[in-house]
Each structure stands twice: as C-alpha cells, then as structure tokens.
Amino acid sequence: MPMVSVIIPTYNRPRELSEALEALTRQYYQDFEVILLNNNGDSIIPVVRAFEDRLTLIHVDLPENHHVRARNHGVTIANGQFILLHDDDDLLLPSHIEESLGDLEAGADLTYADAELFTYRWENGRRTVIATEPFAYPYDRDAMKQDSTFIPSGSMYRKSLHQTLGAFDEDVFNYWDWDWILRVGKDHLVLHPARATVLYAFNPSGNHQSAQQDAARKVYFDRLVAKHELPTTEMKNFHIVQSERRARLRETRRTFDGQLTESE
Q1: How does pLDDT run across 25-82, given as a tens digit for each residue?
Q2: Is the dihedral of CA 94, 13, 120, 152 positive or negative?
Q3: Of 35, 166, 216, 257, which cross-links 74 as Cys (Cβ 3.0–4.6 Å)?
Q4: With helix as H, strand as E and coil as C, how does 30-79 read?
C-alpha cells in the first residue's frame, strides 16, 4: 500500500492539535505518517506522547514561526509517495484519506475535497460546534485567478510534483496555497470531488487585522498578482470570499454529524 505523509505545522494550539490527531487515528486508511512541525511555539511533547502509540509520528522543533518554510521542511523529510497537507486546527472525517488516495490512484496529480465550515465555542477544554455550513465550489482554474476557493487543509498530491514545480513559494507567504493550486493546475490534473470530508475551523468574527498587518499582507498579495498576472487587485479574506460566493454553492455529500472527535 502507498505511504501518505501528513504534514502539520503547529503553533501553540495543543488542544486543537490533539483533536486533529484523534481524527487521524480514526481514518479507515492507516498507512500514513504524521510530520508535526512545531513553529517555535510551546513544547508539544505532551501531545506527541499521548499519540505516539497510535500514530507514526515525526516531531520536529523549528527555530522560527514560518508556516510556509515549515511545510517545505516537512516535504523534504517526508517518506510518503503522497503528501497530505493539514492545518493544526482542522479535522478529517474517517473516509478522507482513503477516498483522496483513490483519486490519486485513478490518475489525479492533486485532489482536494469540499469542507464543512464550523463555528465553535470552548467548553471544558474542548471545542463544541455551534453551526456548520458547506464550502463547496467547483474547481475552475480561470475562476481561481479571480479569488481562491482552494482549501489546502486536507488536500493530497503526488510528492513528485515538487520535482517539477519546486517548493512552496515562501516569497508570497500568506498566499502560498493560492500560488500552489495555480501552479499545479497549469499542467497537471486537479480533482475536486463533491464530498465534504474536511472540517474547517471558521472564526465567526472574521479575520480582523491591524493596518500594519494589512500592509504587510498587501506586499505578498501584490507579488502573487504579478507572478500569475491575475485579473484581481482586491485583497479578500476567506470570509469575504465565502459571503460573495454562497449563491454558487454546489451540491456535495455531507456526512458530518456535528460532533468533533474527543481525544481519549
């Protein structure tokens, strides 16, 4: 069976990370390793110890908080034929890896699923879901140039893509994922099946940033626009994209019951 390398950068989210790892223990397909990249945050040794008997874990402490560089490092030490990208506060439903692997074995170079966006509150040290909604839009590379509906968390692809395309672009920082899907989609087969198997943590208050943060982000956005000659000049956070596109939601398979996994 092919090996999958799950790459998870993390920074000071031990409770969320524990939930993500618990969800991985429940995957139907279990031939995978998990590469945990601690981005110069607090120690994650307690989390690693809680799961080291149930998952194949590789734990790396990095000297800086740079999530793109962390992912690139994860790729360089990955043993798998396939890479699965994973954010530390998201979760995967049990069929996710098995079905994604089926997409790649059928010929795709990269596959990514629809998501269930969930809002939550903290209760007794864990997250309780308040509401969910689908994030489900067809893949269209031309539309992707206007604004990105690609959620990298849960996406799986052939590691060999990096031999052709190189590493994730650290120079566009916040927009590394948008850059990646545009680069892959240019000459490779991208599949986006209508199944919502990624649980994506969605802050209902939106991404409020300071003027200084917005100015820094604009530098990376302008680099992305110039690199791909994009037709857009407007920076949009994820909440704006979702609100503008809701009318174009597609039908997707939804099986999430509203209960997040609880770490034992």
Answers
A1: 999 999 999 999 999 999 999 999 999 999 999 999 999 999 999 999 999 999 999 9
A2: negative
A3: 35
A4: CCEEEEEEEECCCCCHHHHHHHCCCCEEEEEEECCCCHHHHHHHHHHHCC
